[in-house]
Amino acid sequence: MPADRHTISVVIPTLGRETLASCQAALAKQTRPPDEVIVVLDRERRGVAWGRNEGIARSTGDVIAFADDDGIPPADWLERLVSALDRHDAAVAGGTFQETDPLLDAIRRRTPLPTMEQLDPGGLVGNTGNILFRRDCLMVCEQADGYVFNPAFTGAGEDWELIWRLRKRGARMVYVPNPVTHLRRATGIQHVRHSFQRGLAIATLFRVMRADTSGVVPQDSLLWGEAGKKTNPRWLKAGWLKLVGPFARKEFHDARHFWWFWLGEKCQAAGFLWGMWRGIWACSGTHRSQGSRSTATSTTERRP
């Protein structure tokens, strides 16, 4: 029986990448071995939210960790996460990535993260390639919302949406500075495509946030809040930074990395605008459909 007295399940959603074997090998070398590893192969490309929900349904652990199929956890990954979870009596413990791709590494270095373990007021914990949850807090979400990870998020953003719902329920979160090595490689074109998809996810998250009345947000954003509290969107500053800036050339040693990052920000803005328009169109279509059904019903009711 491990000293922590937990049963740990590790869930890995995958499309079948070759890097999956490296992730599994790293899990086999953990100083605190997992009690079970559940690999969910998404043959029909239903999205990571589906894969993670499927993994939760198959798991038996009282704590559930999530890894990505292109991430290599350090040997003490589970040991440090579960130790921090218990020490802080937290519901969630997590960290971030150490990028191996030069472009992604240059972009990630723009936002330095703490080097000390600490309770997270918002914005540090949420990356589902390096995170561990108490099962009971996930089950509360499933019972209340009908799902753990929101299936409306098919490409990105499902992790932060879940963190937001947990924060609304008062979940304590602890940041553990023990990064997972990320094997993802990204050409400039791949990066801008991913940025567009991320923009779509931000639009979905924005609509969810604006409709909510709790006043709680998962992280600081020009679109929905700061210091963990909801604020009005700061459209002017957001537009300036995304459509014109950011003016961060000095933060990059390689000029090519900066220009791909700069172009990615424009693509993210385009994805956000497309996602917002698509959401508005979908809502208007729903209203028209409901109006048609109401008319048909009323006509039927008037029959003798």
From TrEMBL:
It comes from the Bacteria. Pfam families: Glycos_transf_2 (PF00535). Signal peptide: none annotated. Residues 43-111 form the Glycosyltransferase 2-like domain. Coiled coil: none annotated. This is Glyco_trans_2-like domain-containing protein. It comes from Nitrospira defluvii. The lineage of its organism: Bacteria, Pseudomonadati, Nitrospirota, Nitrospiria, Nitrospirales.
